[in-house]
Amino acid sequence: MAEAKYPSIYVTADIVLLTIRDDQLQVLMVERGREPFLGRLALPGGFVKPNEDLREAALRELLEETSVRIKPKHLEQLATYGAPDRDPRDRIVSVAHLGVLASLPEPTAGTDAAEASWHSVTEMIKKRLPFDHSAILKDGLERARAKLEYSTLATAFCPTNFTIGELRRVYELVWGKELDPGNFHRKVLGSEGFIVPTGKERQSGRGRPSAIYRKGPAKTLHPPILR
Amino acid sequence: MAEAKYPSIYVTADIVLLTIRDDQLQVLMVERGREPFLGRLALPGGFVKPNEDLREAALRELLEETSVRIKPKHLEQLATYGAPDRDPRDRIVSVAHLGVLASLPEPTAGTDAAEASWHSVTEMIKKRLPFDHSAILKDGLERARAKLEYSTLATAFCPTNFTIGELRRVYELVWGKELDPGNFHRKVLGSEGFIVPTGKERQSGRGRPSAIYRKGPAKTLHPPILR
DNA sequence: CAAATAGTGTCTTTCAGACAATATTGT
DNA sequence: ACAATATTGTCTGAAAGACACTATTTG
Hints:
227 residues; seven-stranded mixed beta sheet; elongated; 5 helices; two-stranded antiparallel sheet; alpha+beta; 23% strand; DNA-binding; homodimer
């Protein structure tokens, strides 16, 4: 093809990885190990290899740049950011991904050289992040918010077994507003295939024990759970 | 950065441009002028230039490859396709876009070398298109279908002035099913800022004359118009 | 018992969808 | 008058949201 006429472009895969920790919506960030923006907090990501799919690249970078061993329960492409000046040095097009994970047993961890750490999404949204990572994070958050309405994405924030109260907390933290426990309960159970009972009960804390559920087979919610 | 370690990748911008012509949902295709797949029908698109935004590239390719002078009323990024083997020769990542246009006065037209022509979406969906263009077209169609529900995208298929009947026809053709005229009428008028009356009336054909509307200021529909 | 959380019941409003009825034109 | 399209009206059922109420646990 036109190899000479069209100088190639560097392609990276970045990822907005969300989880809920300490009753907070958090995002995984890495401390940049090289210029530009050395030492600054940025979204994890890196160059796509010649024979690698975009999704693979996002997953690999997650493993390399951070010590996140467990794969995200959910991973989807978000959007591609390609403004010519988005990187001050080279022309780099970034294919951003959105990932969602249940809170890990081991908190931050940091085996490799790169420092990976969880941060409050609210705080990261306020900060000015390097490159166009502020826009990417904002878009990722909005995507997650929107998908809670009509998809079963919320279960990706939960461990295998969870209570309706925990699921509700996911919605509350991502949407940033409290929901009526009673109405939520009914809506979730009324949405075909969203969650299935395990038969088990109890769990933690004070108050009446709750039934324990697992993710159901549904991918989309009928009817949806609106913001 | 790692220029040596990470061989660059070619980036193209492709576009699924939809319109309604001859009471049919149609998509703009070009006849490929070079290998691979020389002579085959494919989605318009081409290489992103070094200092060009992705959106710009999509628009430029549309102008270059086809004689579509008028800009699409709507243009958004669809998704990025980057399977390593999606192009049999080089590693090419394609940032696909979705465009929507009102039916042009001049039908196909074809000034440049490349042959551009409108085709029934239904037929193109059935066909096996080169590269992964079948998947891209399918995704583009699904995006358009979904966006009719909660956005004002449908008006992008219409000229400046249109009747509710014409707007309904957009929904019917994109969704592939007939809608109740009465219910549609009420829903559209009840959706804040979707369309505004021009005061004018009449238009064409048989039957009671219809009021003429223009696109309103709203971007999203409250309440939505569900499939 | 008080506080906390889980879960159920009730009521009002909104809206979707089916379908009937009326309005106004061209043939 | 008839066919076609626009527009309005009526009814039923689903679901959202507010909120009261019951159930069951811990402290």
